[in-house]
Each structure stands twice: as structure tokens, then as C-alpha cells.
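in:
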């Protein structure tokens, strides 16, 4: 009886190890396989001539735009800062020799913005859509301390934009039987991050939405890639970075952009860079309750540090 019980335990343990290894290694192995035998077509030829990038005036969105322009994709940049967009458009036209258009949109305005976007893309052969726009509180904060406006804006910017932008470009991609939709999610969507509750939950939606879309698109010729990024040295992370010792976990923005771009069309799910892959792999190997507890503890610490820094800044301003 003990031998039978022991055999079952060994079988269950072996099964768990195999599943973990498959889940962990499927992305790098897929990337390696594609790099050896995959398509060598230039992106404009493979997907279409135009790339649309939301949240493209800064950070990850801007880096994707630069890499796509370097690959000779024409760009439609969408963001809320006209000054930044105009500057980037001129820079990329000169530097990369591609056509660059831009559209000033504040996604927190909600559903009303999408008619304007639809009009802007109606004559474009959109081959790549990067759903990058997102918002994060400028510091760790308890959910009950968030304003009702911030709750609404997180829904409209992080979730509604992904669904509506996909809905705009997908019919034409399906008709042409080519194209790729790249959804920038976050590891926070899998890790239940307290003190970033709305952000974490909204990114869980993006993860679920993307995985469901991948199933719908099988056999259509259209791809949908999930990018589960962790901390990258972006403007959105600056306030968080100064409030606690997060530097060891933050990827360089430019290097991250190149690394994430290199995965387009090669794997369906990625963290975008090796350091993030290792971080997420370790978190998945640990018990869920432990990861959740540690993150909550860490975020509480960051909250205290952030509040202390802000108080010191206010006191210094009053003394001047």
C-alpha cells in the first residue's frame, strides 16, 4: 500500500515538474525555433505598411515606435501630448525615412475618442497595432484612497482602449489575413499587487483578453501577442523608483524596447526581456500566498518611503 501511495506521489510530483518546465520554457524554445526556421520577411511585407502605437509619446510606446520605424514601418502615433508627438514625428521621418502621422487623443475621455481614431486609420493598411497606453498611480496607494475619477480613468485607459483599438483594426486585418496586435500587459496582472489594485486588476483583464483573442484568431492569419512587462525605467515608474529600492528590478528602457521588439511574430507570449522572464519565473515557482504577502509588504514599505519623501519635499518648499 505504501509503495502504491509513494508511486502516486512521485507521479504527481513528476507531472507538476513537467508542466512547470513546459510553461517556463515554451516561450524561449518557440523563439529559438522561429529564429532558425521562421519567416524572414520584412515586417511591412509580412503584416502591412502601417503601425499604430497608443501611448507613444514616452516610454515603452515610443521605443516600440522607434524600432518599428527602423524596420521601415510607417507610423501613426497616438498620445495626448501634441508637442511631444510633433517632435517625435519630425525626428523619426528624418532618422528612419518613413511616413509618420500623429493623432492627439486622451484615452481617459472614454468612448468618444474612437470615432476620431477610426477616421484616422480608414485609409491605412494597419499591419501592427501596439496597445501600449496605460496609467498607474504616481505612488503606491490603498484602494479606498483612490478618487472615483482615477478608478474610472483606469478602466477607460487600461482596459477599454485595448478592446476598442483591437475592435477597430481587426476586421480589416482578418480580411487581408495578416497583421499582429501587440497588447502590453504587466506581470502585475498575474501577481495580485496590493496598493496598485486597479492597475494590477486592469492588466489581468489585458492578459485574459489577449489569451482569449489568440484562440479566436487561430487560422485567421492574424496574430495577437501578449507582453507581460515588469518594471521598466519609464516616466510612469519614476515616482515609484524614488520611493523605494526598486533599482535592481528595473530594466533599461532602450534595451527593453529592442528586446521586446525582437520577439514580434516569433512568440505569442513574452515578458519582453530576460531579466523580467527570470523574475516572473521565480514568482511562479513560489507559493502564490507567499508572493502576494511579500508584494504587499514591499508595497507598504514603498508607501511609507514615498510619503516620507513627499513630506520632506513639502517642508523644504515651505522653508524657501
Amino acid at each position: 500500500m505504501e509503495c502504491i501511495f509513494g508511486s502516486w506521489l512521485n507521479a504527481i510530483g513528476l507531472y507538476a515538474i513537467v508542466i512547470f518546465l513546459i510553461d517556463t520554457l515554451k516561450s524561449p524554445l518557440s523563439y529559438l525555433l522561429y529564429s532558425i526556421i521562421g519567416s524572414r520577411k520584412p515586417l511591412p511585407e509580412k503584416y502591412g505598411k502601417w503601425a499604430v502605437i497608443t501611448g507613444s509619446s514616452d516610454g515603452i510606446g515610443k521605443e516600440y515606435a522607434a524600432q518599428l520605424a527602423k524596420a521601415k514601418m510607417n507610423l501613426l502615433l497616438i498620445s495626448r501630448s501634441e508637442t511631444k508627438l510633433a517632435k517625435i514625428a519630425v525626428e523619426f521621418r528624418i532618422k528612419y525615412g518613413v511616413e509618420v502621422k500623429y493623432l492627439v487623443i486622451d484615452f481617459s475621455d472614454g468612448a468618444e475618442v474612437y470615432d476620431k481614431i477610426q477616421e484616422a486609420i480608414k485609409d491605412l493598411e494597419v499591419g501592427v497595432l501596439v496597445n501600449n497606453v496605460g496609467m498607474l498611480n504616481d505612488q503606491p496607494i490603498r484602494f479606498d484612497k483612490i478618487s472615483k475619477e482615477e478608478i474610472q480613468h483606469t478602466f477607460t485607459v487600461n482596459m477599454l482602449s485595448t478592446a476598442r483599438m483591437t475592435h477597430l483594426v481587426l476586421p480589416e486585418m482578418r480580411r487581408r489575413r495578416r497583421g499582429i496586435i501587440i497588447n502590453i500587459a504587466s506581470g502585475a496582472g498575474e501577481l495580485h499587487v496590493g496598493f496598485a489594485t486597479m492597475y494590477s486588476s486592469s492588466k489581468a483583464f489585458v492578459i485574459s483578453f489577449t489569451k482569449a483573442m489568440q484562440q479566436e484568431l487561430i487560422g485567421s492569419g492574424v496574430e495577437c501577442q501578449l507582453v507581460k512587462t515588469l518594471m521598466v525605467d519609464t516616466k510612469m515608474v519614476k515616482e515609484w523608483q524614488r520611493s523605494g529600492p526598486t533599482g535592481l528590478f528595473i530594466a533599461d528602457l532602450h534595451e527593453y524596447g529592442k528586446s521586446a521588439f525582437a520577439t514580434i511574430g516569433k512568440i505569442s507570449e513574452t515578458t519582453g526581456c530576460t531579466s523580467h522572464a527570470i523574475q516572473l519565473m521565480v514568482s511562479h515557482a513560489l507559493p502564490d500566498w507567499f508572493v502576494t504577502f511579500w508584494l504587499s509588504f514591499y508595497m507598504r514599505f514603498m508607501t511609507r518611503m514615498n510619503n516620507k519623501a513627499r513630506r520632506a519635499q513639502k517642508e523644504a518648499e515651505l522653508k524657501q
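note: The CA atoms of residues 154 and 198 lie 7 Å apart.
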